[in-house]
């Protein structure tokens, strides 16, 4: 089948080898006026079309309160694409995509609007050949999830007719804690069967994250030492230099741990620590991730092994950044964490006794996400003791972003010395080794939804286990005073450094 854009020189080699083109279908976005939709979802739809991966009659429906005509919506998509799409703008692709664009105006309580949505879908089935196959993307605050899915049910929009599908795509955060996540799951599953529910964790759509599995299981080099006998500890860092931008309403009360540790960082931990799955299909992958998340153990002393903090005013990138409590829309008494660091252990034979340190923060030194597997020191060294003291730990660093690749760190003899050993790095960089460019995570994930491929979507069990890990920490923080502080533009609070120093370790400065 040839999609929108037909034969497209932009289609990369991997796609040529494995053309995964969506069949007749459409996407409905709730919350289409939001940031995520403008920056990520609309551009991803266009990029997929531009790569020839969408069917010719693909349709995009926006649903929101805004009083827009179809043309206004199309103009919004156009602007979003111009500003944020990854691939160049091509008029012929746009002209084809626009044929299937519609806007439905209304609130989530508005029955007429949902009837309007229904007739829009029926109309598109006729004129665009979408075959009744629609995915509903809930890019809305979690408190609206139940309402929207109930409306979809009430108006027959979730009903799958013979030979067609209806799917729900749900943005994170999926709940606020274990109890609310369970309630949400129940509501969603009353309306959509589990295999038609796609919970988005966009980190799983990143090429570098998928590569963790290739690195571990397509090679012989790493797996034999990927365990407690050789690994000293693992550090998973997701540092951002941005503040909360215009997201005060979302962020305050949620904080760093709920925003990204509960989902992105625990998924990175699961992929790093899980056993090899029997195959790479969705069930086998979920089974292994679930096992490892189920084996995660919290340290007994949460005061010593967790840190939460807020940024205070500082200089970043040559500009003055205000402190979190001075950000517009933030309660000046807020205790919300903009930085969180936690130590976890995994209670199984492979990892017993190996700490996994997770940290994330806004307004840190620079934007970087990496997983560093730090190995134990050599048990014996034939070199003299001064040299041995200087020798660091070997490490394998998976650079998730922005400088995508893998670094191996090891000791090497310094030329011209008798036997001084110093740490050096060996690098693999995507940009140097591949000519293919990486699609945006949302391109991959939206395409997977349309194809019904759920490999890269966390299952309900994973989401619930992740809350189970985080809930006691959040409760401990709620009950125990105020967050620590760190200056914007630095690498976080002293308390986080002290936390590792107590274990005789230190954070990497990527
Ligand atoms: C989102 C968080 O899930 O991930 C944001 O809600 C964060 O707070 C974002 O900024 C980071 O995504 P990325 O892909 O830029 O690392």
Automatic annotation (TrEMBL):
Residues binding NADP(+), per UniProt: 65, 172
Glucose-6-phosphate dehydrogenase NAD-binding domain residues: 28-211
Gene Ontology terms, MF aspect: glucose-6-phosphate dehydrogenase activity; NADP binding
Signal peptide: none
Sequence segments annotated as region (Disordered): 487-510
GO cellular component labels: cytosol
Record-listed E.C. numbers: 1.1.1.49
Binding site for substrate: 202, 206, 240, 259, 362
Family stated for the protein in its record: Belongs to the glucose-6-phosphate dehydrogenase family.
Protein name, UniProt field: Glucose-6-phosphate 1-dehydrogenase
The species this protein was found in: Streptomyces pristinaespiralis (strain ATCC 25486 / DSM 40338 / CBS 914.69 / JCM 4507 / KCC S-0507 / NBRC 13074 / NRRL 2958 / 5647)
Lineage: Bacteria, Bacillati, Actinomycetota, Actinomycetes, Kitasatosporales
